[in-house]
Amino acid sequence: MLNSFNYKFGNSLCNATRTACGRGPSSELTPTASAASLGHVRQQAVARDSRFARNCEGIALADANAVMKCLSQEGKFSIKKHFLLPTVYFLLLFFLALPLHAADDFFFKANELYDQGRYKESVKYYRAAIDDGRYEPFAWFNLGNALVQLGKKEVAMVAYKRTVELLPDFVKAWMLLGDLYYLAESPSDAIVAYNRAIELGTETDHIHFALAECYMKGSDWTLAQKHFERALALNPDRMDAWYGLAEVYEKLGDYEYAVKTLKNALQMTATAGADVHYTLSYYYRSMDSTRLALNEMENGIMMDPENVSARRYLAQMYVKNESPWMAIFTLEEGLRHKKGIADLNLDLGQIYFTQKRYDEAFECYMKAWRAGNSQGRIGAENVGHIFSNAGDTEKAESLYTRIRDKK
Q1: pLDDT tens, position by position, 128-163
Q2: Is the dihedral of CA 45, 213, 228, 222 positive or negative?
Q3: Amino acid 48: pLDDT
Q4: pLDDT score at 279
């Protein structure tokens, strides 16, 4: 039925169509991440819980050359060595678990395994390098990277903390620690980590975007705005930051500035897509500007013609605007793309039913049912009831027969 997609636009379609970017800080926590880095999303209507979208940069290991260079720079940092006195029993177990390598080789062997994607195997070599002490800070950092790849983010956080204890000026470790704090729902700790990275002279759009997201979690709209704007100054092509800035204005109830922000995004970034128009439509509806809301939905559908949810919502908007013929046209156009056939026919059936075009309604309901939407059968039976109640038992029985035969 038409009411079956009468969901609130602001919490459904608008949010579902913001998934191209995704939003929530994550710099390099996964190797198979989205190139969008940190994108903008709210609660997706179909299935989405996380506002955390991942970047495609991958985690860079502390390589051997960098290690040796740092080791040679006296006074820049100190490397603390640990000399262990293991028992014979421990030694036997250790050498059974690991091939015989010189202590200096543990770190490089671990990096080799990491580069091959053998993260679990690399962990024990990083731990051996840590015990040896020579490459300890870097081994802790790379251990954290390997643990992230294995999904053990809480343990990875410990490794990154140890890294910055030994190397307080290691910017990359502070950034990744900030990301893990964010994932752990600890924005205040994430803010400290990100600000430390800025203090060390590293200012990137990722850091500012991540800080803005943290302040959004704390409802500090002023600082969120500041950091979204700084992220855009560093990278105007970040659609996720444009969304974030627009959301700040939305939270403040200033829809005019929210609209202005996304209009600027359309002019300044090549990554703006149909979801921008859907979001603009939502803002215009919040401003009680139905005509502009319809225009933006139409613009979005032109760019995204196979978006069934958007098409159904546009049809609903037409019905509410007393333009059922446009709703029918919109839904029939959607059928040409061979997607969402059951839902589109169900909605068509309801429109025809409301217009008392019962034969057409019945055919659409049956198509919806045969395509897999059980509501189609209910709609078809309701058409039969209309004829039965009107005394046309012959017509009603013919329809009931088709329902029983699912023809």
Answers
A1: 999 988 788 899 999 999 999 999 999 999 999 999
A2: positive
A3: 22
A4: 95
Q: Spell out a b/e string for 173-207, using b for 16 or more CB atoms within 10 Å of the CB, else e.
A: bbbbbbbbbbbeebbebbbebbebbbeeeeebbbb
Sign of CA dihedral 137, 107, 190, 279: positive
Q: Which CA distances in Å does 202 have to 148, 195, 206, 272, 361?
A: 23, 10, 10, 28, 63
pLDDT at 225: 96
CB-count exposure of residue 292 (10 Å: 0-12, 13-18, 19+):
middle
| The dihedral sign for the CA sequence 59, 47, 329, 363 | positive
- Please tell me the predicted confidence (pLDDT) of residue 2: 42
Q: What residue spans of 133-238 are helical by DSSP H?
A: 136-149, 153-166, 171-183, 187-199, 205-217, 221-234
Q: Within 13 Å of residue 115, how many CA atoms lie on the same side as its CB?
A: 9
Domains and CATH numbers, the chain: 59-178 (1.25.40.10)
Question: Which pLDDT belongs to residue 175?
Answer: 95
Residue 284's pLDDT is: 95
Q: Which residues pair with 55 in a beta bridge?
A: 34
Check residue 72 and report its DSSP letter: T
Q: Which residue positions in the chain have pLDDT lower than 70?
A: 1-104
Report d(CA 219, CA 247) in Å as an integer. 11
| 276-to-16, 259, 262, 389 alpha-carbon distances in Å | 12, 10, 7, 48
pLDDT of amino acid 309? 94
The model's pTM is 0.72
Q: In this structure, which amino acid lies at residue 375?
A: Q
Which residue in 147, 146, 139 sits closest to 170, CA to CA? 139
Q: Is residue 44 within 8 Å of 25, Cβ to Cβ?
A: no
